[in-house]
Design a protein that fits this description.
Elements (H helix, E strand, L loop, with lengths): L9 H4 L2 H16 L3 H37 L3 H24 L7 H27 L5 H15 L6 H37 L19
Helix pairs in contact: 2-7, 3-4, 3-5, 3-7, 4-5, 5-6
Length: about 210
């Protein structure tokens, strides 16, 4: 709503100092208009980044556990553990898809795809081992070769996660921080204008220079 007295004739009703302070107050209110959105974006981006790190790290540990169970001939347990790893990767895919419009997800997609290929190859190997019933079948040999190839394509360390987080930061997180800092600067400028000395009007005390003594 319009503030009473505002309009073409406001200079006849209000002093210049009042108008200046009104404009500074409105600027302060406007500066904080998008803060809630920026803070939400900042919190959301941080949450997604942390969740992705947890999912990808735990997936690697869980998938490795399933491979260990296969080597110990714990085939049923291996399939169950691998299903848990796959569920983690599926959740990571969902988070990735949500960020597709704001963040470069190419590194994240490559990371997820390679791990998904390994999970599929390991599942095939475990199932082929169960089906072979202790015999070396063609399917078992092919499954073993496929698992080895998929394993070789896996990232050798977690440095890829660091890159992923950096990409997320270049997206929504940085935009949120810029928005918050911009609002802070505008609010500070408005506050300075409100708390600064009043601008003297023509003919008012203080407008004329003090007479010199002597």
């Amino acid at each position: 709503q319009t503030i009473p007295g505002t309009g073409r004739n406001e200079t006849l009703i209000w002093s210049a100092d009042t108008i200046q302070r009104r404009d500074a107050t409105l600027a302060a209110l406007t500066a904080t208009g998008n803060l809630e959105i920026d803070w939400t974006r900042l919190a959301s981006g941080s949450t997604v980044a942390n969740r992705l790190t947890t999912l990808l790290t735990n997936h690697d540990l869980t998938s490795a556990k399933a491979l260990g169970q296969w080597s110990k001939k714990q085939y049923a347990d291996g399939l169950k553990t691998l299903a848990e790893a796959t569920a983690m990767l599926d959740e990571a895919k969902g988070l990735r898809d949500r960020m597709a419009n704001t963040v470069d997800i190419s590194t994240l997609t490559q990371w997820i795809d390679r791990n998904a290929e390994f999970d599929t190859a390991l599942q095939r190997l475990i199932q082929a081992t169960i089906d072979s019933n202790g015999k070396v079948t063609k399917e078992l040999r092919d499954a073993f070769v496929a698992e080895q190839k998929a394993h070789e394509l896996l990232p050798s360390n977690t440095s890829g996660i660091v890159i992923i987080l950096a990409e997320i930061g270049r997206g929504g997180l940085n935009e949120a921080v810029i928005g918050i800092e911009g609002a802070r600067a505008k609010l500070q400028a408005a506050t300075d204008a409100l708390t600064g000395p009043a601008v003297p009007l023509s003919g008012e005390p203080g407008d004329q220079p003090e007479p010199s003594s002597g």
